Amino acid sequence: MYLRKTILATGVAISALATASFAHAEPTAEVLHWWTSGGEAKAVAALKEDFEAHGGKWVDSPVAGGGGDAAMTVLRSRVLSGDAPAAVQLKGPAIQDWAEQGALADLNDVAEAEGWDKVIPPAIQAVMKYEGDYVAVPVNIHRIDWIWANPTLLAKVGATDAPKSWDEFNALADKLKAAGITPLAHGGQPWQDATVFETVVLGLGGPEFFQKALVDLDEDALKSDTMKAVFDQMRKIRGYVDADFPGRDWNLATAMVMNGEAAMQIMGDWAKGEFLAAGKVPGKDFLCSAAPSDHGYLFNVDSFAMFNVSGDDKVEGQKLLAELIVGEKFQETFNLLKGSIPARLGVPLDKFDDCAKKSEADLLAAQEAGGFLPSMAHGMALRGHLSGAIVDVVTAHFNSDMSSDEAVSRLVEAVELAKD
Amino acid sequence: MGASQSTESNLTARIQRHLSKIVVAPSFAASLFFVYGFILWTGYMAFSKSRMLPVWDWAGLRQYERLWQMERWHVAIENLLVFGGLFIVTCLIIGCLLAVLLDQRIRAEGVLRTIFLYPMALSFIVTGTVWKWLLNPGLGLESMMHDLGWTSFKFDWLVNSDMAIYTVVIAAVWQASGFVMAMFLAALRGVDQDIIRAAYMDGASLPRIYFGIIIPSIRPVFLSAIVVLAHLAVKSFDLVIALTGGGPGYSSDLPATFMYTMAFQRNQLGVGAASAMMMLATVMAIIVPYLYSELRGGKKNG
């Protein structure tokens, strides 16, 4: 009798334990990313801490190197073998590519509960959604079309601010060059050439032209006189960079502006991180100003795509992760570390620097004016094979003495070839 | 007991008889699958509509058509011809010259041989990075000459899109010519000394002996060296990545870097596979006649 009771009690206790442990199965999320160095690594660590503080189990899968190429190769094999990580650092139309393969999970219930539609800018929502369903979450907004300038060098030719139009830009650059100062710090890598190119397209053509040419790939826009003018300007810019530019990394170009070896750099706001890391003060040691354009704003948004996973703990973990990523706390911590601004509007920017505040103010103005556009050079506007075809032409033109007419006809040809 | 002993020795004998086959079997199976299996698979991919993920939909020759319409592929092919041609010829000349000079029974030959052969021990990534620094006008040779006062000195091939491919040749020759030298040196030592002495007796000059007797007698080594160098040229990838990154622009792209860009960066697996098959065809065009002549020659001698 006693024995039976004991057995029963033990049985109950065991089953109670089992249910308890089942109910407390930790929400787990495996995160595949390539933020493995500097501020980026710190930013990921912040997310991990936040996730663990909410009772989650974080499985880290960093794949270093190749600017994400290596990670994409890993991702391909993981998905093909039916073992996708819960969250993958993925951005732009690549999200749509994976969603088309049916590999991404639906986040709509989290989105509704958290009211994402109200806080995420519509243009970014479009990137995060596939056929109306959220499949990815944005972590930040980088602006591409910045000019970073060294005020001491500008003062030497009597300028107090970065140029407000491209004519002014050329006039200023000519003056700088005449004074023996390298006007523009640039690194001759295809993506950097393309960064300058798209900034010029936005500046000379305006937001509407940018949309037509580099987002919709409208043939008339691609072969228009405006596009020829863009290539003419690129040829001028080629004359404003120093002779040793090919192959130089972007941060070395930023260092040239910092050390007074060149006056300006056209680069996204990750360049700010270099200035800040060197203890420079915005507005005093360096100037951040928007490249000339009519209320344009090119964005580059990093995001995590959520892949289909099985098992309650993994699904829970994925939802928790998505909720935290879009949450105000993470958006603030992450972006302070990364140099970008939050991808959700309405996060107080008290702790951010002046450049970040300007970035958000410009963002809101651009959104009003219809100039808030995805970057082509950074894989936000077009799928890889299309932007790759454009970048090939841009970089071939910039690094040779190809005429603008030939560049335009090659551009049309390359886009046509990549489309089919 | 006697019976079991005999089965045991029987087994041992059988194992011994087949030992070589048993040992080789795993690597044979692995290379059958991982090399030839994947060649077939890549061959199929080149006929498919694959973009981001491999798919099996048949696309016929479309990927090859697209490949040959790409300006960048033409640049890569032209670069391969320039690079391959110069690399092979220069390596042969320098390697042969070094071997002949070392063959003069000089002092400290062992040390010199090691010095010349040593670059081969480095990875192409290291070679590429070091030469990138040396050839960078702002850091290396040019800036050193300027610092020394020779300010008109100009050597900007690395940053000049017409000349960048030649810097790849320089670095590759530096790396591989020592290896070619070793091949030639071994062959030179194998030449029958009696013939050379006989030629001396007849009053032949040293250059005459080399050009008339020794070099013709080591002709097979030329062929081997060319084959080794040619396939090094076709598959060279890391050197370009480290040295020029394919730049400026894509002016120093080679087929291997082109393939990598298409397959892994641009979601164009189909075009990437097609370019890989073109590379395979190039290597086959070199290797097959070589193997053919080798095998036929083998029969003749045997």
UniProtKB/TrEMBL annotation, chain A:
Q: Which UniProt keywords apply?
A: Signal, Transport
Looking up InterPro entries in the UniProt record yields: Bact_solute-bd_prot1 (IPR050490), SBP (IPR006059)
| Pfam families assigned | SBP_bac_1
Q: Where in the cell is it found?
A: Periplasm
Gene Ontology CC annotations of this record: periplasmic space
Main localization category: periplasm
In the record, which residues are listed under signal peptide? 1-25
Q: What role does it play?
A: Part of a binding-protein-dependent transport system for a sugar.
Q: Which family does it belong to?
A: Belongs to the bacterial solute-binding protein 1 family.
Question: What protein am I looking at?
Answer: Probable sugar-binding periplasmic protein
Q: Native species of this protein? A: Thalassospira profundimaris
TrEMBL record, chain B:
Q: Which GO terms describe its biological process?
A: transmembrane transport
* Keyword annotations of the record: Cell membrane, Membrane, Transmembrane, Transmembrane helix, Transport
Membrane topology according to the record: Multi-pass membrane protein
Residues annotated as domain ABC transmembrane type-1: 77-292
Q: Which GO terms describe its cellular component?
A: plasma membrane
**InterPro entries on file:** ABC_transporter_permease, MetI-like, MetI-like_sf
Principal place of residence: membrane
- The membrane-spanning stretches of this chain are 22-47, 80-102, 114-134, 163-188, 209-234, 269-292
Its subcellular locations are: Cell membrane
Family from the record = Belongs to the binding-protein-dependent transport system permease family.
Record's protein name = ABC transporter permease
The organism's taxonomy opens as: Bacteria, Pseudomonadati, Pseudomonadota, Alphaproteobacteria, Rhodospirillales
